[in-house]
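quick one: manganese (II) ion bound model?
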Amino acid sequence: MKSSVTIVVPTYNERDNIVPLVEKIAKNLSRYNYEILFVDDNSSDGTAEEISSLKSKYPVRVIVREGEKGLATAVVRGFESAESDLLVVMDADLQHPPEIVPRLLDALERGSDLAIASRYVLGGGCDDWSGIRKAISRGAIILADITLPKARKVKDPMSGFFALKRKVITGVKLEPVGYKILLEVLMMGKWREVTEVPFKFQLRQQGKSKLNLNQQYEYLRHLWGLSVRSGEFKRFIKFCLVGGSGVLVNTGLLWLFTEKAGLFYALSSVIAIETSIITNYLLNHLFTFKDRRVPGAKAFILKMAKFNLVSLGGLIINIGILSFFTEIFGLYYLLSNLIGIAGATLWNYFVNNWWTWQDSNPV
Ligand code: GDD
Ligand code: MN
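yep, here:
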């Protein structure tokens, strides 16, 4: 027998899928000491009763939550009640093929902390999806990549099918809303190594998907919550504060060189801009991105060069927006400039976040 495994399956009105799912898992996990832990949100179709009727034949258990709903929180409830060191999460509707579970567990045994069944690595896919659903799925991933840089470490942070070692979430407060439990684990969990195993998302055999517009809204709420809890929002505020200090440095030096050193103001401005870029870089290095510092002078200089390049782009964006709103819409130029500064700040933040200080070492 291999190590003990708990397979957490959230269910809501999935009665007709229970027997085929349990049978398939049993066939694929005979080498393991496993338990299937269903977390059911008081389904009205007899899902929990169906599960209970299998107790004498299969290692199944069901928790029925009353007055609570939601896929991701149901999974968290399952984690809390599971006793194994290895945890698997999968849907009940057979869209996640049980044949993949041993491959996820193999990856954990080879040293990964987290193994994701992924639609977006070579060999994976969701062939039966409409163009619209594919686009929504991709869009959701891009949004996560932008707001939560750590999500970029994997190709399919939205998968609902994955396995993890318990230690990844030990002592971690998981507070997901909506569907995306994996995103919560990726952002808040303590993992070093992650593997993605390709899988093809299957057609639903029985019952209906519970995904609706409300889930899209909850997804946005979840992204916001994760930005705050993971510290990414704070990082953005720090970046803006540093930017504000740069404006002071810039204005001060422009005045100093022009008034006190007698330089032509455009020349003073060049010196003032470059100096404020460097002070911004230093402050971001020491403050905003201190958790992503890489040792060595070479990395320091390289990042400074990148930061300079990004700032140059920001300058062009600022001037571009300023002239666009002033010339095309006849907006008062100081107002256009504020919009320009906002645009440049976003550009600077995201490009520096993704590129200059890219998050190369998780944990
Ligand atoms: N306990 C509980 N409570 N379970 C729920 C709830 C709920 O409120 N809503 C859905 N579930 C269960 C379903 O019964 C099913 O077992 C599983 O969660 C997935 O629900 P579906 O409604 O079938 O989701 P989907 O197929 O549209 O989306 C799945 O695939 C996406 C793409 O991979 C989910 O796994 C998503 O998390 C995933 O992003
Ligand atoms: Mn489904």
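Residues 232-356 form one domain.
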